[in-house]
């Protein structure tokens, strides 16, 4: 590709593309709010190879004729590439991302109530030498708190266009659109040959701290000449912090928030999940009644409908979790929660920022691992990613629910509050936490050994979250989740069904133990015999590598096919007949530890940039799962 | 302010040299100037990017429940760890005059 482009690629280069504008800014400057205002629903979540972090690209209709593309980059404080977010932002701005042209213009948004420190991004951005718009967001708050600024003077001094906005209510957004409509596709071709966005000026081997100080001095002069009056203290934020960061109330509020989030996932989500399940089963039955009995109906209903349906059921739970996380983040409370959690995390060897990914891990490890990108220290981020799959994700719940209902008797352990079943469930959650804590402790003393990092957390002003912004994010989450269910789970469901249907016998499909799937189970049976599992569980363990909850559907299929003569026996009863109580507990322990989720492994590989960590993690968790189950079987 | 400051100096703990104050030693609401960051470059960088540069003014505004400092710099609120705050050398503003 170095010399002489192929005809196809030159064609692609000549193809008319829309002007691409990068939207950047520090965290909490209102970047995504502005993005949502500009793009509305015309946005898509994109993954780019290599860096592969979720990036948001949307189209902006400036006027009847002009449409431009806007890319929402992660919030950054600088371009040192110390964090993954900074690296992504830098690579996109410098045009180092495959399949993405270098942007034709930049919109830099800052929170003008903290103008001096936020403007530190201006100088490096200007080095890109492309049209730049500086958006002074939260102008209303600046004025309310008695601050002021001559924005025309600032524009002159910096040599960029400046717009005042209040993105939350959409004030000034039209002016931003005007700027966007003037951007043309640049013909610069190749990106600059060297890194332009470094924090240290090129050719000058200044110590970093001096480079920063020099830049800051120049900025201070600019801000002074633009007659910036810094705003007074943010009174509501002060008053709220007096409670949320109070020595006694602070931790109490924190615990209440955690309890409410959990309660909502496990209690309030249930009716919604029942609703979705009813929808899936009734639509499946309706469909079955319309189709002639045969292999196609079997594939569609027993394979696809049941397989995909068993995963889609979790959508309400995941959405409720993300609704809460969205509110907590947008209101500014999440930063306070991270501060409160920091001391506990610090003792384990992590930091407060790990709190958000770990909490998300209770819904699903995949978004949680992506959320770990905000952890600034690379070792801390790796450790956080490594322990996230120990958090009991919602995919383990159906497995736990089935086995507990089948083997643990109802009965009260502690008066009316805690029954045996609830206690076992709590114990499994506890098991995950203990494993996570011990693992983090070990990691930070071996592979990821480091001096404790300098934890700095920005505490943004409290703001009322916008329903529109959270709604758009939930929509995104649903799309991503359903896409996953529609691809991986769909494929597994079909593969499973096919494996139960072959080799064919004269009478049609084979007995399950003679089928390809059954034989696969028998091959691994010797390995799992010490745990008290037979080949049926073995098949379930293999198929649940696609997603943990698949084991429920698989066992359903296996026993369903096996007992097709007797419909009245439920899966629970069949399991009780086939599995001893110690083996059932062993299976529960196995699922508490094992990394039975290929999607997580794939995300791990992307986020850690190689196979080393995912392989290590998978083997480690499998080892824990096997030995844990081995011990459990002998203990009970 | 100018009159009350000397009184608070004597009540503040100092290190062995008797001349250097650390941000971690500063009581709430006492604005100080940052003199030096005693941290290796890569660990100082997050501080620098957020405006904590030598010469800037820092004011501890409250403590976290665990006793870590929360400070105001350039109109931003930042939460630090005690360990980090103890690596930041500061001086009282009255020392300058």
Automatic annotation (TrEMBL), chain A:
<protein>
    <recommendedName>
        <fullName>FeoB-type G domain-containing protein</fullName>
    </recommendedName>
</protein>
<feature type="transmembrane region" description="Helical">
    <location>
        <begin position="581"/>
        <end position="603"/>
    </location>
</feature>
<dbReference type="InterPro" id="IPR011642">
    <property type="entry name" value="Gate_dom"/>
</dbReference>
<dbReference type="InterPro" id="IPR005225">
    <property type="entry name" value="Small_GTP-bd"/>
</dbReference>
<feature type="transmembrane region" description="Helical">
    <location>
        <begin position="481"/>
        <end position="500"/>
    </location>
</feature>
<dbReference type="Pfam" id="PF07664">
    <property type="entry name" value="FeoB_C"/>
</dbReference>
<feature type="transmembrane region" description="Helical">
    <location>
        <begin position="384"/>
        <end position="408"/>
    </location>
</feature>
<dbReference type="GO" id="GO:0015093">
    <property type="term" value="F:ferrous iron transmembrane transporter activity"/>
</dbReference>
<keyword id="KW-0812">Transmembrane</keyword>
<feature type="transmembrane region" description="Helical">
    <location>
        <begin position="304"/>
        <end position="328"/>
    </location>
</feature>
<dbReference type="InterPro" id="IPR030389">
    <property type="entry name" value="G_FEOB_dom"/>
</dbReference>
<dbReference type="InterPro" id="IPR006073">
    <property type="entry name" value="GTP-bd"/>
</dbReference>
<dbReference type="Pfam" id="PF07670">
    <property type="entry name" value="Gate"/>
</dbReference>
<dbReference type="GO" id="GO:0005525">
    <property type="term" value="F:GTP binding"/>
</dbReference>
<keyword id="KW-0813">Transport</keyword>
<feature type="transmembrane region" description="Helical">
    <location>
        <begin position="354"/>
        <end position="372"/>
    </location>
</feature>
<keyword id="KW-0408">Iron</keyword>
<feature type="transmembrane region" description="Helical">
    <location>
        <begin position="615"/>
        <end position="635"/>
    </location>
</feature>
<dbReference type="InterPro" id="IPR027417">
    <property type="entry name" value="P-loop_NTPase"/>
</dbReference>
<keyword id="KW-1003">Cell membrane</keyword>
<dbReference type="Pfam" id="PF02421">
    <property type="entry name" value="FeoB_N"/>
</dbReference>
<keyword id="KW-0472">Membrane</keyword>
<feature type="transmembrane region" description="Helical">
    <location>
        <begin position="420"/>
        <end position="443"/>
    </location>
</feature>
<dbReference type="InterPro" id="IPR011640">
    <property type="entry name" value="Fe2_transport_prot_B_C"/>
</dbReference>
<dbReference type="InterPro" id="IPR003373">
    <property type="entry name" value="Fe2_transport_prot-B"/>
</dbReference>
<keyword id="KW-0547">Nucleotide-binding</keyword>
<keyword id="KW-0410">Iron transport</keyword>
<keyword id="KW-0406">Ion transport</keyword>
<feature type="domain" description="FeoB-type G">
    <location>
        <begin position="18"/>
        <end position="186"/>
    </location>
</feature>
<feature type="transmembrane region" description="Helical">
    <location>
        <begin position="248"/>
        <end position="270"/>
    </location>
</feature>
<dbReference type="GO" id="GO:0005886">
    <property type="term" value="C:plasma membrane"/>
</dbReference>
<keyword id="KW-1133">Transmembrane helix</keyword>
<keyword id="KW-0342">GTP-binding</keyword>
<dbReference type="InterPro" id="IPR050860">
    <property type="entry name" value="FeoB_GTPase"/>
</dbReference>
